[in-house]
Amino acid sequence: MKPMSTDVKGLYDVIVVGSGPSGSVIANELTRAGVKCLMLEAGKYYPRDTLTRPEIDYYSQIYWSGGMELDTSCKNGIMRGKAVGGGTLAYQAIMCRFDEYVFSYWREKSGIPYFTVEEMEPWYKKADQLLPTALVDERYRNECCRIFVEGLAKLGYTARAELRAMDDCHWDKGNDCICCLGGCRIDGKGSMPHTVLKRALTQGLHLIPEFEVKQVGVKPDGVIVNGEYRQDERLSFFGRKLVLAGAPLGNTKLLLESGFKVKLPALGDNFYIHTQWFNCGMYDREINAHKGPFQVYGTHDPKLRQKGIKFENTFPPPGGLAWLFPGMGRKHHEVMRKFRYLSCVESSIRSFHPGTLRLDRHDSMIINSGLTDDEGRRTKEGQQIAYDVLYSFGAKWVVTARFSICPHHFGGLSMGVDGGRSCVDPEFHLHGFRNVYSADSSVFPMSTGMNPVLTILALSIKASQQILKEMA
Fold first, then answer.
1. Are residues 294 and 396 in the same domain?
2. What is the pLDDT of residue 253?
């Protein structure tokens, strides 16, 4: 896949801002139907042979703000991809269907009746066909996996293997998935550049990487998109329709800077996160949690779901662990030298209380996660369970990261039937703007407690059919 030039090719039918799962899927569906599309992406394009190996480098290269953006509490770091493919370049793409528990919250919050398991199933089936998926073979389960599954079972909780977007990950040849947080060098992960976006480009999509959109203007007969190419060349593009696929922070910031708050009073509201906490135990034997598959198991236990708590079998790479780990100086260095002796149980807390996204006077994002004492209580409960799991297998001591990471965040442009309390209508238009659409995680009415990528794909296919219907 090669990025295209910045030459304007007349008037585009659709301009897509963002190349993550939603933008790539919509571009693929539209170009396959013969629609003339332009995709604009702020990040660079990284073929697999150009992905950087040093961990400190890939944080700065493929994530916004060098790795994460802190909320107003400075306890939660929002992580979002900045590269062609968006977050799919970095994350593991756990493929979960949302259940009635999630959709019942969504229907109540949004008033949209099609948020049901039955009505979403056809779109999930279409989404299933986009990426190769598989469960990790149990032969490659490492000691960290065993501690996770069997430790939770001792406490009466069930864990199961997660369905992942992956294809031939070469574990039998010694590949370690922890490296793929900086992008997969063997194209084993179902990231957008390797799958959906690749197909869209062969169908005629015009992609411009390293173009950061700064402002959009909308009129009844079209849209204008202004921005900077490689931070020094200002360009404008024209289209009939606009698709916003920059995720919660990207979409909200762009619309706030473009003055949409006046007509969209709920813009930046209904923002939710999943706080994810690394709880690490030190053992007197090698665990080698960094070896083999990454994020193999998760809990879908009903008892935990009701509490908004989930556990995932993950492990941070050395740089990330050192960054998150408490301690300083020689003591910290001594702990990191025993990296192989550490195991981890990640506790993830679903937020039930919305926060807000706003701009300060310098147009920098103010992220208020909206967390309350309730989230604090459930965070401590999740951490205690993680401690019990780790200690049950002989951990000498257990410690929790200093702050949470939040790769899953939702809202800012939430969907709903009420234009005063939401931003996107049931047909995926911005309220009052029939030629502007969005279907990524920024439109989620509430948080989920489950990995969102499969639902983003499903909603994006549904939105694509709506766009095609209106263009017919």
1. yes
2. 98
- Residue 318 CB-half CA count within 13 A: 16
One domain, residues 426 and 450? yes
pLDDT of residue 110: 98
**Quick one: average pLDDT of 13-28?**
98
Instruction: Please report which confidence band the pLDDT of residue 470 belongs to, taking 50, 70 and 90 as the band edges.
Output: very high
CA distance 270 to 409: 11
Q: pLDDT tens-digit profile of 361-371?
A: 999 999 999 99
Give yes or no: residues 342 and 402 share one domain. yes
Q: What's the rounded Cα separation, in Å, for the pair 302 and 349? A: 14
Angle, nearest 10°, between helix axes 453-471 and 117-128? Answer: 90
* CA–CA gap between residue 182 and residue 53 (Å, rounded): 8
- Residue ending a domain, among 388, 409, 430, is 409
Helices then strands, each counted (H, E), the chain: 12, 22
pLDDT at 7 (0 to 100): 63
- Distance set, CA 277 to CA 212, 264, 378, 398, 425 (Å): 31, 34, 12, 13, 34
Q: Do 299 and 317 form a contact (C-beta atoms < 8 A)?
A: no
Of 354, 382, 409, at which residue does a domain stop?
409
Q: What is the DSSP string of 72-87?
A: TTSSEEE--B-BTTGG
Any residues with CB less than 8 A from the CB of 354 and at least 6 apart, and which? 269, 270, 271, 272, 370, 411, 446
- Residue type present at position 21: P
pLDDT digits (tens, 9 = 90+) for 200-249: 999 999 999 999 999 999 998 999 999 999 998 999 999 999 999 999 99
Contact predicate 406/351, CB 8 Å: no
**Structure confidence at residue 461 (pLDDT):** 98
Question: Does residue 262 share a domain with residue 166?
Answer: no
Q: Which residues contact 13 (CB under 8 A, 6 or more apart)?
A: 30, 35, 36, 37, 239, 240, 241, 471
CA angle (187, 191, 345) in 5-degree steps:
95
Same domain, 332 and 401: yes
Residue type for 158, please?
A: T
CB 218 within 8 A of CB 80: no
Q: How far apart are CA 284 and CA 98, in angstroms?
A: 40
Give the pLDDT of residue 51: 81
